[in-house]
Recover the amino acids of this structure.
């Protein structure tokens, strides 16, 4: 959805901080974002072994509130929001009637009838329009694009809790995974959730945009002794790939169903009608035609998005995400293959610049952190 | 990092260290900075023929795949196998990390290459 003349790139409140710190910047989904600071591999390893700090303020926040807010969220979001306590979040999908992804998101229950949906940066406007369209006429429920009210920082890694705790009165050890709490961080009022996109323990911190820089610096300073590093989108991508977290636009999009994507757990099977429910129920009954699998290269070579995938000489699909990742030091990736060919251990061939290169389906996630 | 006067350079950020009829080839400090962390290189076999300006291999960072372009035409007579196992040395010592040694088929082609001053000017 590019415009004929390039619109200026959007900037997060930390844009000058990133530039002043020497980050290499890249255009991402209409935003001017840091792709790396000291290097993708170094940043990736920092998150796996110590801690990393990410600016993800480009993400969108859409709030839905009103007496009928729960019913509205239940309609447009695939997961069952009635299971959420106040102070709890869940991963979900905004699905088309075919059960494919408009976007993936986190749903936060701020109050019994007040929800915050955190959506991908490149889809904020389309998601908002889609949501508003689908909840129109649903009674007392209104959607607001509140993205400009929030900056979002993510501290991720085994040392994240120890680094963040001195900066906040929130008892982080009692904040369970996918729970959030309001409080102060570096004397700035905000919300801290125990969530992330790296496969490590960590926290995402919502603060007002004008305070983002202060909180960013405070976290870097607090984490200096522990070896925290500022991290960019490059490491964010390699980390989430090792953890087999899907990326909308790569592994999931409006042509892939929640079942095909292996995300049947984001479907609220027992809740009444949501967009995509019928299609998904039908697919569950008859079985999916294809499935998203993880693979690793067994020959030398790196599989990348778009490369063709072959099984027993027949082209079956394309790589959706792939690279060599710094922690595992393996070339891994994901691809959709026909359901009958999706078993672990199945041999694949990836066409890498004209050469059929051997790979094998492996279980996902590729990386799982040890119990802390 | 300084660009050695003993090397010649291409617009595509390769360097070649000529000695008689042979040349050691690598990529410049600028190139490795642009690439980011190198994780993989694909080099030709010994005996392969290369043409000036054409791709003789690929170099990959986490995020991207780039072609390696031959500074001169000739034949591959040596390949740095050790570099294939430790491609990250290219980031650390780009001007010491030779990839292939070429035997030149047309030494006159070397006159089209840039000296270090001209290459540094190109980077400005």
């Amino acid at each position: 959805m590019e415009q004929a003349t390039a619109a200026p790139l959007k900037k997060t409140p930390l844009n000058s901080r990133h530039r002043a710190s020497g980050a290499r910047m890249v255009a991402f989904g209409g935003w001017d974002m840091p792709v790396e600071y000291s290097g993708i591999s170094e940043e990736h390893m920092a998150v796996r072994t110590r801690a990393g700090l990410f600016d993800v303020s480009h993400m969108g926040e859409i709030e839905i509130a009103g007496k009928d807010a729960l019913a509205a969220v239940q309609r447009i979001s695939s997961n069952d929001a009635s299971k959420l306590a106040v102070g709890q979040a869940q991963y979900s999908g905004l699905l088309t009637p075919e059960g494919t992804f408009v976007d993936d998101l986190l749903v936060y229950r701020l109050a019994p009838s007040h929800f915050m949906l955190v959506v991908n940066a490149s889809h904020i406007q389309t998601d908002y329009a889609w949501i508003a369209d689908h909840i129109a006429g649903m009674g007392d429920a209104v959607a607001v694009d509140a993205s400009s009210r929030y900056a979002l920082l993510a501290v991720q890694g085994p040392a994240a809790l120890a680094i963040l705790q001195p900066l906040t009165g929130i008892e982080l050890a009692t904040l369970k995974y996918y729970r959030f709490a309001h409080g102060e961080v570096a004397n700035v009022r905000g919300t801290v959730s125990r969530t992330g996109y790296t496969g490590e323990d960590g926290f995402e911190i919502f603060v007002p945009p004008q305070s983002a820089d202060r909180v960013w610096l405070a976290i870097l300073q607090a984490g200096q002794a522990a070896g925290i590093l500022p991290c960019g989108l490059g490491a964010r991508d390699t980390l989430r790939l090792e953890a087999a977290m899907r990326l909308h636009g790569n592994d999931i999009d409006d042509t892939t169903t929640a079942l095909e994507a292996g995300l049947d757990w984001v479907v609220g099977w027992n809740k009444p009608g949501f967009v995509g429910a019928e299609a998904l129920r039908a697919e569950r009954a008859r079985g999916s035609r294809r499935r998203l699998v993880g693979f690793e290269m067994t020959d030398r070579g790196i599989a990348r998005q778009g490369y063709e995938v072959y099984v027993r000489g027949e082209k079956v699909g394309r790589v959706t995400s792939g690279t060599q990742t710094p922690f595992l030091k393996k070339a891994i990736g994901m691809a959709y293959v026909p359901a009958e060919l999706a078993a672990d251990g199945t041999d694949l061939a990836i066409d890498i610049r004209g050469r059929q290169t051997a790979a094998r389906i492996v279980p996902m996630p590729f990386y799982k952190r040890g119990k802390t | 990092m300084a660009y050695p006067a003993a090397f010649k350079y291409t617009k595509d950020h390769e360097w070649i260290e000529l000695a008689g009829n042979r040349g050691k080839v690598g990529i410049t400090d600028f190139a490795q900075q642009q690439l980011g962390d190198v994780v993989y290189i694909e080099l030709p076999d010994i005996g392969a023929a290369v043409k000036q300006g054409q791709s003789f291999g690929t170099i990959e960072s986490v995020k991207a795949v780039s072609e390696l372009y031959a500074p001169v035409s000739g034949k591959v007579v040596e390949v740095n196998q050790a570099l294939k196992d430790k491609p990250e040395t290219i980031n650390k010592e780009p001007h010491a990390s030779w990839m292939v040694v070429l035997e030149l088929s047309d030494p006159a082609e070397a006159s089209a290459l840039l000296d270090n001053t001209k290459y540094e000017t190109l980077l400005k």
Strands of chain B lie at 8-9, 14-19, 22-27, 38-42, 49-50, 55-61, 65-69, 74-79, 100-104.
